[in-house]
Amino acid sequence: MALDPAPRPTDQDAPRPGLENLLQEDRRFPPDAAFADQANVHAEVYSWANSDRLGFWADQARALLDWAAPFHEVLDWTGAPVARWFADGRLNAAYNAVDRHVEAGNGDRVALHFEGEPGDTRTLTYADLQREVAKAANALTALGVGTGDRVAIYLPLIPETVIAMLACARIGAPHSVVFGGFSAEALHTRILDADAHVVITADGGYRRGTASALKPTVDEALSKGSADVVRHVLVVRRTGQDVPWTEGRDVWWHDVVDTASEQHDPVPLEAEHPLFILYTSGTTGKPKGIFHTTGGYLTQAAWTHRNVFDLKPETDVYWCTADVGWVTGHTYVVYGPLVNGATQVIYEGTPDTPHRGRWWEIVQKYGVSILYTAPTAIRTCMKWGEDVPAEFDLSSLRVLGSVGEPINPEAWTWYRRVIGGDRTPVVDTWWQTETGAIMISPLPGVTAAKPGSAQTPLPGIAADVVDDDAKPVPDGGGGYLVLTEPWPSMLRGIWGDEQRFRDTYWSRFAGIYFAGDGAKKDDDGDIWLLGRVDDVMNVSGHRLSTTEIESALVSHPSVAEAAVVGATDDTTGQAVVAFVILRGDAAASSPEETATELRAHVARQIGPIAKPRTILVVPELPKTRSGKIMRRLLRDVAEHREVGDATTLADSSVMDLIQQGLAAPK
Length: 666
Ligand code: WT7
Description:
31% of the residues lie in helices and 21% in strands. By secondary structure, the protein is of the alpha/beta class. The longest helix is centred in the first third of the chain and has 17 residues, at 126-142. 5'-O-[(S)-butoxy(hydroxy)phosphoryl]adenosine is lined by residues 280, 327-328, 403-406, 428-433, 454, 515-517, 529, 532, 538, 541, 543.
């Protein structure tokens, strides 16, 4: 398949139908006076940052981080689009996240309240974390990991995951965390792409009440060819289940970490030293290894975590429900909160195990005061009913955050009323794996919030909505979201593929960053995000590529051709709907059997999160004369709408054929 290297907005350009009501929302929620008074930042922060953007970020970098060697230059943009922030400074991320809090006398402060799905708990103070991270860093060094080497991490959400990431950071070994729900195939390609010599995993983790194995998936991944690059697999015992074992290669965490020395000097690294690689779906079949560096990333992670959530590290209990397999877990479970010295909750399992009040029970138990979660979770809770959270004391909550996709005003107002007791600010935070940290969001003590809108670029951030010619649209207009100035936590590239980095983000509009999101400005100039304009879907706040799922489908022997669209879904935001043309002999088996087999195949290829909700067997796909699939028309079918303008199809009867086939009794 020929792939256009520069993602042009496609026929998915029109805002998703379910989101139109966003723009009719006119309720306002200004912060109450008491909250505004005690807030970390006030309205002046915008004028300060806007009058001297670089000076603002330099001040934040100095105030929020400890530097082993100070920086003198703030931003070097001469190599654009690859930015260098604070480049002549040196620092260590793990030292900033852990040691310095102990040195400042806060070693007894709880860093992590861990809640396992089965109900087991562990509490780690900053002093505990320092010992564990130092031991793990020594163990990794003993396994041959040096500064600059990549380490793959494939773990459930347990304390060792945070420890492993920080241990990598401590020695300057960029980590590549692969979400535990991804398949062996996905893990294999990520190990190869990053050339990771060590994989850190666990025997398994708890999910929906059962011990679900991870280690066999690692073995399967290595059997696909990555065994040549991987020298060691470091295995945490979490569930106690039996694991396949390769002598010499596999080592138990408790054998090598628990016995290691607690003394380890963090390595002072250049501010531009790569901190991590995180793969995310793009518009082609191959995931992009987005990589972030140290000084700028930590600066923006810490600033946004402190000020978007109004964090008071001494008193707040913070909880972000994301898994560390996603960027939200990197920035708002690991680096932001720990650099700020916060106390936080991490929870291994699903929200409904063993009952639908589990999250609210956790909020009550730990006195959670700041909660950061995704619209899909909020909508799921809405479905379960407000009597579930009503059974728990949620009065400790004082700030609520949302991330991952546009939040519909109904979910926003429900979140504030039912979870926030009609009292808490709600911050809708827009950002991406690529941006590294929050970019557009209200500030809870400053902004009069509008349900459904992320509203305002943060201080020191320059965003706009532009038309096809890169011209800013007037208030009331719609177009593409762009970022017009470099920001500290911006991605520094796609691992091993600088050309793709330039093509994907910097070629649509010369010199400015193309985010891939459609957006509108309302009459006040506030920004409303309207979903992706490229072939990327957002399912439960997770990014999935239509092309990647199509490739997985056509790799099945029964499938001749496939087209995938994201259809609006009440709970998950979008859902994967696949249209497939079967090969001659496969067409004989029942559509139900075929669909079951294909869904399992996609789960094996990518992971269960990519499984199509619906698979429709069709005789043809709608294509333009140049052979491009018109997904817009398929989305109309998937969303049970009248099919839109089909006049540019090569064969205009195709849509009739598809619909007749679908209407026919099975
Ligand atoms: C895409 C980035 C950022 C962490 C989670 C997802 C969508 C994210 C919002 C929001 C509207 C949002 C965008 C963006 N998105 N947050 N508050 N309002 N849309 O990270 O997997 O890199 O996905 O998620 O479409 O481009 P990601």
